[in-house]
Please model this.
Amino acid sequence: MSTTTTPRKPARVLPPLMTLTDTAAERLRQLYAKGQEGMKLRIGVKTKGCSGMSYDMSWVEAPAPTDEIVTDKGLTVLVDRKASLFLIGTVMDYEAKDLTSGFTFTNPNEKGRCGCGESFHV
Model:
């Protein structure tokens, strides 16, 4: 008895969960070296704002069992596993403007943002 096999399509390469720009990496290095030494940045999403979701960042001492560990440019960032589907392919940047500064996210999964930019939906 002979069997035939159907050739399988090659697996699709998924984008990285998250990447850092050079500017974000440099700012994280500064934060890790100063007041947040020994801590890790955890990124997640929360239900908040008029569009439904907002990015949530917190400092933690160690990864939770459910955290995804992202290493980019020699730095480690933790991603809450519940947020990972919303963040696939996201680029984290750091912007310093005249009146504000902070981390920003370019997320290819976003379908829209609220007027003030505080929240997004997918």
